[in-house]
Amino acid sequence: MLDVQNSLAAPQVIRRQDYRPPDWQVPEVALDFALDPAATRVKARLEVVRTGAHDRPLVLDGDGLTPLSVTVDGVTINDWRLEDGRLVVPLPGSAHVVETEVELAPERNTQLMGLYASGGILCTQCEAEGFRRITFFPDRPDVLSRYRVRMMADKARFPVLLANGDPIAHGEAGEGRHWAEWHDPFPKPSYLFALVAGDLAVNRGTFTTMSGREVELGIWVRARDLDRTHHALSALKTSMAWDERTYGREYDLDVFNIVAVDDFNFGAMENKGLNIFNSRYILADPDTATDYDYDAVAAVVAHEYFHNWSGNRVTCRDWFQLSLKEGFTVYRDQSFSADQGSPAVKRIEDVRSLRAAQFPEDAGPLAHPIRPDAYLEISNFYTATIYNKGAEVIRMIATILGPQAFRAGCDLYFERFDGTAATCEDFVASMEEASGKDLAQFRRWYSQAGTPRVAATLTHEGGRAELRLAQRVPPTPGQEHKEPMVLPLKLRLFGAETGRPLGDEQLILMTDSTETITFEGVGERPVLSFNRGFSAPIVVESDRSAADLAFLGRHDDDPFARYEAMQQLMLDALVASVAAGNDSSQDGGHQAVLAAIADTLDDPALDPAFIAEAVLLPSESFIGDQMAVVDPDAIFRAREALRRNIGRELEGRWRAAYDSASAAGPYAYTSAAKGLRRLRTVALGFLMASGAADAGALAFRQFDDADNMTDRQGALGALAGSNAPERVPALDIFYNRYSDNPLVLDKWFSTQALSARDDTLAAVEELARHPDFALANPNRARSLIGAFSVNQRAFHAASGAGYRFVADQLIQLDRINPQTAAKLLPPLGRWRRFDAARAARMRAELERIVKAPGLSRDMFEQASKSLA
Ligand code: 0A1
Ligand code: ZN
């Protein structure tokens, strides 16, 4: 049993089934800010209306606030009380005006929730429960209000004053101050409130909507960053047009502003008409941002923009419904990105990140359904499950319904729930109504956690093939027994001899625990292409031979399935060598992998971006996920041996691929050029692994000659994991060149934290003492601690020193920023997957964390659940 004696007053569990509609609505809000980093005064005027027949008082959430005054209908009252930070105001009638005043110190707000300062800019973050750190308010998403916001601030320090909606007035206020007033005509929940005050420059654009309205767009950054905002602005325009074309959704205000700040807990925030971004998802130019960064900027800009409909116009009734807006919006941004470049490569990337982040979550102590039933701290539920598995669930609905019915379901959902706070159930019901399809059993995807596992066995006899399927959803905390899921499975058979498809692709809906599918007229031995396009987010257990996987790697016409066959082939070889305890190249498995990679590299019809994905070895952690007990050292050895072997045996091909990709000419941000850059760095990685004498020099040349960050960081990453003499000079050059650019310095930290070298832990401990390291900046903290804790070999060093380092850092970080600290805890919680000695050391660190004095609720929830 866990000792929780010294935790805060035992945190209260919030349960979905306890939902009750609000006692009071607040149709109109007027806020008046006298802004100052040290002491900001906030006056709030709420028009409150009692809902239904009850005599309960008005209860306004507050977090760390003390009322300086409370008035009701203009009269100061004294019969208010504070209960657990909440302001309780007894009210006699059914409608009143309640006014409060509080004082805040944004410059001392290190949690970065509520009103805070980032590099001299005052900004807000309110989702999920930050608004209660700004003013007393019913801070829940089903209270929708119209906001009028007045801000006053020193004009020299804060020349720009922004809030939600449209600007309506501004003026001088004396003593060097000025003011501005904004009004947002759309009722919104408090989590979408935002303001920004700062010395900002703007990149302006315009967008004409499909009904002909002109929208003024602005990307606001510090003046020195202005020339790195073009990509974000163009992504914004592309997203606006895409949402009109694809979903018929039009923007609804006259202005749309985005502000970038350096200190931000997450990626970005969809505040109505005033998105606030982590600067890493806005700022990009070829010299400082990789292709990956460019894609991420476009995806996050699109994501936040798409929230204007899936999140803002239709919001969530309560936080258990979070995936209603997040799963749907991720699905929308993934579809958008797929449309901008190669859908096949995008699908591969999305599945890779699902497997890297969500599958382990679903298999560990923090597993939860996409619509959770209970939480202690909602910030802990901004997870890969809510976001990425949530998106897979929407994708399955789209697959089951087909494009037209899915679009009709979306139209119905938007129309019916516009201006309201809805539930996941409302979404599913809209889909059913528009399509006429019954999704009753499908709803289990919302309530059951865990990744379904499907065993697929294909037999063939006398012209008839039989596919036997068996599904099983593993138990997860609090859910021992699971019911079978609805699985949309795309499949196709190929003839082993001819290499040709035997019939069309089929979509089957598996609904029972076991099912058998029969194929008639199958003249030659069939090979199964299964879960094509990753049509269901499952683990497939199939006994396909190395020869059949290699066959699919060559012949499958579904690019995802082709990639998947390559991955499975490599995975089988690696798991076999780990199990055999050997890292030698004698394995037969190596030969099949080598041949398949050679064929892939030789296929002139393939897109270089696809080749680069298909030849990449599965990550160490994904290999570990296949094993009963993870042995990080054995995995590392086996993977390195295979990498070396692939590098050596195919050296000529890697050089050819490298050279042809290098001949692409000067930098351009096009799909074709991106694919070549990707293949180039992948080839470099294999050449480094081969031990070729000139590989270090080749990497250094790429590093030094690069006219873009993709090539430069790619080469630096290859060097950082090596013993090449060029390694230290490259790291130093990189540091000196970019020491005034925080986003690039993050790369310098993370590249070293991800290094496969033996001395990585010592290097990382040293980096934590580097003058540029700062726990208080979430990006920097993640670049070192977050990167280190996914470095399987270094983090899982048998001594336990990696665990200790991370726990020490998280205990410190928790005092500064609990949200960011708690997000970095899960790798320590995976102790059940490791041998007894490692597991004991990981547990010991978790116990130390749980006992840390003053531990936050965020960390307490993550650490205690991980121990349970
Ligand atoms: N809704 C945002 C994510 C987000 C959540 C919480 C935050 O608090 C620090 C910030 C952002 C999104 O999905 O982009
Ligand atoms: Zn979102």
Outline:
This protein is α+β, with helices and mostly antiparallel strands and 868 residues long. 41% of the residues lie in helices and 21% in strands.
Question: What this model shows, in words?
Answer:
The protein is about 40% helix and about 20% strand. It is built from 28 helices and 31 strands. Strands 6-5-9-3-2-12-15-14 form an eight-stranded mixed β-sheet, with no helix packed on it. The structure holds O-methyl-L-tyrosine (0A1) and zinc ion. The site of zinc ion has 4 residues, from helix 3. Zinc ion (ZN) binds near residues 303, 307, 326 and 329. InterPro entries: Aminopeptidase_N-like_N (IPR045357), Aminopeptidase_N-like_N_sf (IPR042097), PepN_Ig-like_sf (IPR038438), Peptidase_M1 (IPR001930), Peptidase_M1_dom (IPR014782), Peptidase_M1_pepN (IPR012779), Peptidase_M1_pepN_C (IPR024601), Peptidase_M1_pepN_C_sf (IPR037144). This is Aminopeptidase N. Its EC number is 3.4.11.2.
